Amino acid sequence: NAKAAQPWSARQYIADVVSLLRNKALMLVSVSAMVRSVTQSGILTFLPLYLAYELGYNPFLVGVCMAVLQIAGFVASPFAGHLSDKWGRRRIIMSSMMLTGATILGMILAGRTVWFVVFVALTGSFLYAMRSVLQAWAIENTPKHLAGTGVGLQFGITAIGGGLGPILFGVIADAWGLQAAFYGLAVSIVLGNFMVMFVP
Fold this sequence. Notes:
Blueprint: H1 10-21, H2 24-54, H3 59-87, H4 89-110, H5 114-140, H6 147-176, H7 178-197
Helix pairs in contact: 2-3, 2-5, 2-6, 2-7, 3-4, 3-5, 4-5, 4-7, 6-7
């Protein structure tokens, strides 16, 4: 189409990005996505360590638990997206963040019981279910002609969170132990909820 044929302009690109950075709703959604990414990267980094060193799981069982985390997220994502279309993005995001925090605490309390794997699955379903809903919410708060730029900006901000998570919770784990890192993970996702409350 005609719009796609327009020449690329660095000046226009910078102007577009600056306009999106001033978009309060988009920035709040993106920062909420970043907090979710902090929690996700922390779980992917420290859950295998917790399983192996704190609970004594062998490599096979560690792999099973990590697979359960991902599969539960795969199953829950379309369902969460559908519910957000019916009930609204905010309600699904806030519910998922609170439940993610609760299920992380449940993992810690379950210890070496079958309930641990159940809480891993629930954590994966709530944590990964948010990703598509946050992306849809970001697009809805971005001008149509900048939808691609808006999603790219959100993913860039999210990537920052993905990089910070292992560092942040690694410091906590070194200071107070792996279990403390999981308490920190639960707190981080709940804090993300407060940002969602302010999205216009």
